[in-house]
UniProtKB/TrEMBL annotation:
Superkingdom of origin: Eukaryota
InterPro entries linked to this entry: Retrotrans_gag_dom
Bias-annotated ranges (Low complexity): 294-316
Protein name: Retrotransposon gag domain-containing protein
Organism, as annotated: Rhizophagus irregularis (strain DAOM 181602 / DAOM 197198 / MUCL 43194) (Arbuscular mycorrhizal fungus)
Domain Retrotransposon gag intervals: 106-204
């Protein structure tokens, strides 16, 4: 084998020209060079992926918001609850996955009329939705402005006079009571005894006695007791009330003998009465005719001739 053939063989085995100083001339150098090239490629790919993630994050924050859950508009009327509206907005904000840096702007988009006027006048004093112990919170200023003392007093009176509806279940009444309680207190604690008394006073009268006997010490325990009493009452009514067939069920078709209706019976009775009256009238007419044809039984009139004879006899 000559020198040229040896070089060609070395190229086939080692993949490099041994006379070229720029290429590795052994397996170790060749592997090291390949590893370095692959590492650089991997590093570049990771950096590109990181840049893509950052770009997606920025695009997500600046994207046009989508809406999965609706948010009710707030107008600032007396019958609206600002505390409840903030809770509804928070729930919709999380469900719709809206960006945090647009939270205040999105909330302002659902304000109308008086509420919108309030925001335009105070937007310079609002820096974020909420940070604890911060005076520039949107929700704090919003609730303080629209939950005035007069409105809270009104909600408190409604809480004291709330009543369970005739066809309202304990579950629905309890939900309505707690909603009004939140409006009246606005996060301020109301003693449990007042909550329980207001709640029991609004229950249906036939539930009150058994609920009071339960001697509960929290509102939730009182609600649970009221539900049990209601269940017991309903069960008792089901076992004592006879079952009636619903008028909405289809009536089976059966062949029955047609009986005279009350109207037909009344007509027959009326006909018989008319016939009897006609018979009585005929009898009465016959009696009258007989009486008119019979001569009257009168006393005989005195004879003038006889009276003259009696007079002559007396004179003689």
């Amino acid at each position: 084998m000559n020198e040229g053939q040896m070089k060609d063989l070395m190229k086939l085995v080692w993949g490099a020209d041994p006379t070229d100083n720029n290429n590795p001339r052994n397996v170790g150098n060749l592997l090291e060079n390949t590893l370095n090239n692959n590492t650089n490629a991997i590093t570049t790919a990771l950096q590109n992926n990181l840049n893509a993630i950052n770009a997606l994050t920025t695009a997500n924050q600046n994207r046009t918001t989508s809406k999965v859950v609706d948010v009710p508009f707030f107008y600032g009327r007396d019958d609206e609850d600002p505390y409840e509206w903030c809770q509804l907005f928070e729930a919709a904000f999380a469900a719709n996955r809206w960006p945090d840096n647009r939270k205040v702007a999105l909330a302002a988009g659902f304000l109308k009329e008086a509420a919108q006027d309030w925001y335009e006048e105070n937007r310079g004093n609002i820096n974020q939705w909420h940070i604890d112990n911060n005076a520039n919170n949107f929700d704090t200023q919003f609730i303080n402005y629209f939950a005035t003392a007069a409105r809270r007093n009104q909600w408190t009176r409604e809480l004291q006079n709330i009543k369970q509806g005739d066809n309202e279940s304990v579950e629905n009444y309890s939900r309505r009571f707690k909603k009004l309680l939140n409006k009246a207190t606005q996060g301020e604690a109301l003693a449990a005894r007042y909550q329980i008394n207001y709640y029991i006073n609004g229950l249906k009268s036939f539930l009150v006695g058994q609920v009071v006997i339960g001697n509960t010490d929290t509102l939730e325990a009182t609600i649970t007791r009221a539900k049990l009493v209601e269940l017991g009452v309903n069960t008792t009514l089901l076992t004592t009330t006879p079952v009636t067939t619903s008028t909405t069920e289809p009536i089976p078709t059966t062949t029955t003998t047609v009986k005279p209706t009350p109207q037909v019976d009344e007509m027959e009775a009326l006909t018989k009465q008319m016939q009897q009256l006609a018979l009585n009238y005929a009898n009465l007419s016959s009696v009258l005719m007989v009486q008119q044809s019979t001569p009257r039984n009168t006393r005989p009139r005195p004879n003038n001739n006889n009276n003259q004879n009696r007079q002559n006899d007396v004179e003689m």
